[in-house]
């Protein structure tokens, strides 16, 4: 039986892919997995999925005709997610600009390296619409905005921006210990759009170290999970809730357990 989710990238299940794989297993969702170094095949998309996920998966691994078929599946009602990384969007070897999938994400992808690596604080903050959107609602963005360590810089076009990555610098600590910092950049963190009958999500930071930064530990409790063939993970409960809400909305998936 074909799984409802096709997940491509994040190196392999023994590496970075264990994070998203663990969270999907924790939610009770079945998935088929394609490592970053394995090309996508016709067999993988013979039957339409409810959700397609690309994360650190080079565009060269998915032939244009296969991408066109996925775009058609999304127009017919499937979900499509691209998660940031060195081999996502343009990145360093992602090269999704000017591809059938890249052109239908609702964002403008650079034709040059779009990676931003930050050694100073970068906070993932919510726009007004995030308070009511199913992906981002019921999470403490205002009181406890999480930090991230890196992201791909894109410009939303058709997509609605829900989260913004705000990078701070020029930090100073006063004699009394008070910290001050100035915002030095702002970039899209999360954008969504409807596409035909389907839904498209772009998340511009990562799901796994190192770019994910402190976001992986976001929460006031801990969640442990483990997918078959992958190492166990331990993450923050708000981080887990965010990703399960994101996948659930994009693919119209129900959580069978959590």
CATH homologous superfamily designation: Class I glutamine amidotransferase (GATase) domain
Average pLDDT, all residues: 96
Q: Figure out the total of helices.
A: 3
CATH topology: Rossmann fold
Report the order of strands and helices. Answer: EHEEHEEEEEEEEEEEH
Overall 3D form: globular
Oligomer: single chain
**Domain count:** 1
SSE-based structural type: alpha/beta
CATH class: Alpha Beta
Tell me which CATH architecture applies here.
3-Layer(aba) Sandwich
Distance between the termini: 23 Å
Please describe what this structure looks like:
By secondary structure, the chain is α/β, with parallel strands linked by helices. It has one domain (5-251): 3-Layer(aba) Sandwich (Rossmann fold). It is built from three helices and 14 strands. It has helices at 18-27, 64-75, 237-251; strands at 5-9, 31-34, 51-55, 79-83, 107-108, 115-117, 122-126, 150-152, 155-156, 160-173, 179-195, 198-203, 222-225, 233-236. It has an eight-stranded mixed beta sheet, sandwiched between helices. Strands 5-9 form a two-stranded antiparallel ribbon. Strands 6-8 form a two-stranded antiparallel ribbon. The chain is globular, with a radius of gyration of 18 Å. The two termini are 23 Å apart. The model has no long low-confidence stretch (mean pLDDT 96).
């Amino acid at each position: 039986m074909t799984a409802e989710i096709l997940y491509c990238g994040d190196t392999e299940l023994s590496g970075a892919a264990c994070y998203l794989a663990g969270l999907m297993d924790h939610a009770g969702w079945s998935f088929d997995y394609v490592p970053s170094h394995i090309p996508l095949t016709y067999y993988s998309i013979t039957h339409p999925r409810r959700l397609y996920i690309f994360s650190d998966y080079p565009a060269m691994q998915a032939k244009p005709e296969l991408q066109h078929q996925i775009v058609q599946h999304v127009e017919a009602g499937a979900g499509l997610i691209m998660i940031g990384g060195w081999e996502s969007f343009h990145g360093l070897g992602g090269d999704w600009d000017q591809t059938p999938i890249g052109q239908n994400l609702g964002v403008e992808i650079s034709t040059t390296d779009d990676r931003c690596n930050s050694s100073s604080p970068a906070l993932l903050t919510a726009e007004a619409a995030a308070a009511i959107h199913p992906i981002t609602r019921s999470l403490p963005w205002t009181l406890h905005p999480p930090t991230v360590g890196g992201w791909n810089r894109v410009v939303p076009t058709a997509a609605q921006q829900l989260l913004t990555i705000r990078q701070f610098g020029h930090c100073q600590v006063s004699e009394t210990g008070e910290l001050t910092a100035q915002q030095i950049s702002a970039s899209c963190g999360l954008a969504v759009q409807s596409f035909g009958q389907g839904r498209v999500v772009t998340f511009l930071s990562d799901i796994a170290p190192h770019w994910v930064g402190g976001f992986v530990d976001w929460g006031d409790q801990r969640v442990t999970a483990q997918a078959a063939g992958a190492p166990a993970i331990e993450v923050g409960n708000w981080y887990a809730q965010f990703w399960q809400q994101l996948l659930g909305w994009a693919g119209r998936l129900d959580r069978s357990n959590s």
